[in-house]
From TrEMBL:
This is Interferon regulatory factor-3 domain-containing protein. It comes from Coregonus suidteri. SUPFAM superfamilies: SMAD/FHA domain. It comes from the Eukaryota. Pfam families: IRF-3. One of its GO terms (cellular component) is nucleus. One of its GO terms (biological process) is immune system process. GO terms for molecular function: DNA-binding transcription factor activity, RNA polymerase II-specific; RNA polymerase II cis-regulatory region sequence-specific DNA binding.
Amino acid sequence: MAVVSLRVSLPWSSTGSPYGLPDSLQNVRFPPQLSLIEAERQRHVTRKLLGHLERGVLVRANREGISSRGCARAVCSGAGMGGLGPHYSPGGPCKLERDAVVRFLTTGRFFQALQLYQEGQLPAPDPMVTLCFGEELHDLSTAKSKLIIVQYTAVISLDH
């Protein structure tokens, strides 16, 4: 049984490692127990998906925004993506190639969308990014039926 580690960098941590990664990472291990999944088919599919994600995923939130780097190949898609529309973030599913960085929310673009919202040109931007691994996620209303969901809300302030 594979145990996947999602490494989340803390926005206040330093960047002293030789790979440009923060020295302080929070490990989030999942799932707690596959035996908690009642449906046999869902348990089998989840076990297979976890095998693909075994090397981990790094989700990083810092002053620049929210990004992810796959330590193994994976497919993820998202809904929300900062509420900035398809021209601000990748639309549809994207492949996380090993060691490739995918940026899901950029602070600069978030502030652009916030300005447009204040001018009445866009709806309010949403600082939450929802990632779904192994399946497509086009709408947050279907999130509860997905196997692996990661939600991250950016804390953005004007004094950055």
